[in-house]
Design a protein that fits this description.
Layout: E1 2-9, E2 12-20, E3 33-39, H1 50-58, E4 71-73, H2 77-91, E5 106-108, H3 115-134, H4 143-148, H5 156-168, H6 187-197, H7 219-235, H8 239-249, H9 253-258
Antiparallel strand pairs: 1-2, 2-3, 4-5
Helix pairs in contact: 5-6, 7-8
Length: 265
């Protein structure tokens, strides 16, 4: 005869135990043997019976199988954490797996996450992969451009990536908004729209201009933008951003303290 028990220890836990009766060879004088299964979020349901799994979930005990939910690699911790915050705002705390770690660049959704959340992180992951591999990057959105964008249908990172991709195709200035719309969700879609509409856009083509401008963002520049964002959040007290500056960009704690917060990040 066995049963499942969950126990809190001080401020930690809960922990799950399978409690065996007196027929267990390791049963003590109290006629029980408590087999330790693990803390919340770490117990693999493959080690449990269907009844035990249902019992723990009914108690709100998160299981490691939640790691079977969708996951996506965002390549940079500040970006990954920004996406995490957006997901929580849209879908609630339960959208992320209990094993998801804000110190990691890979986002793990819970198995109960809605399909829309899965679609969003995969779109973000694909865009980031293209930026890392292809160097299309992001370009900051001006105040005037913000007024023309419907942010109830898209978000700022998507708009920045679209601007980088469209400017990279030779569309000049704010004319990129003449070929992009909020229903275009990926870098590829923005780039295709630019290619199809480039000849009809009014204004000078940036690929016909001499000299260097900001129409494209190299991988190095994209990384610089990530670094600037990380510095902004670090100066506002974000420990994850501070760790990213140190671990990923080679800053020292003294350099972070001495730096001024970016204005336009």
């Amino acid at each position: 005869m066995t049963s499942i028990q969950t126990v809190m220890r001080q401020e930690y836990g809960p922990y799950a135990y399978r409690v065996h009766g007196s027929d267990h060879p390791k049963a003590g004088s109290n006629g029980q043997y408590w087999h330790y299964l693990g803390p919340v979020g770490k117990v693999d349901p493959e080690e449990l019976s269907d009844e035990e799994t249902a019992e723990l979930r009914e108690e709100g005990f998160a299981l490691a199988r939640y790691r079977d939910g969708e996951s996506a690699e965002l390549f940079a911790r500040p970006i990954a954490n920004s996406v995490r915050d957006e997901l929580i705002d849209k879908f609630g705390e339960d959208v992320l797996s209990p094993t998801d770690d804000r110190r990691e660049t890979e986002i793990q959704l819970s198995e109960a996450a809605p399909r829309r959340a899965e679609e969003l992180i995969q779109l973000d992951a694909e865009d980031m992969r293209q930026e890392v591999e292809g160097g299309s990057g992001q370009i900051n959105i001006t105040d005037e451009e913000r007024k023309r964008i419907d942010f109830t249908k898209t978000d700022l990172p998507t708009a920045k990536r679209a601007k980088g991709a469209i400017r990279g195709e030779g569309i000049d200035g704010s004319s990129w908004l003449d070929v992009w719309s909020e229903d275009l969700k990926t870098v590829n879609e923005a780039r295709d729209a630019a290619r199809k509409n480039r000849e009809s856009i009014v204004g000078d083509r940036t690929d016909e201009e001499e000299g260097v401008d900001d129409r494209t963002t190299s991988y190095r520049e994209a990384q610089s933008g990530l670094e600037e964002n990380a510095l902004k959040y670090a100066k506002n007290g974000d420990d994850d951003a501070r760790e990213a500056l140190i671990d990923e960009f080679g800053w020292s704690p003294d350099e972070i303290e001495a730096a001024d917060a970016p204005v336009n990040a």
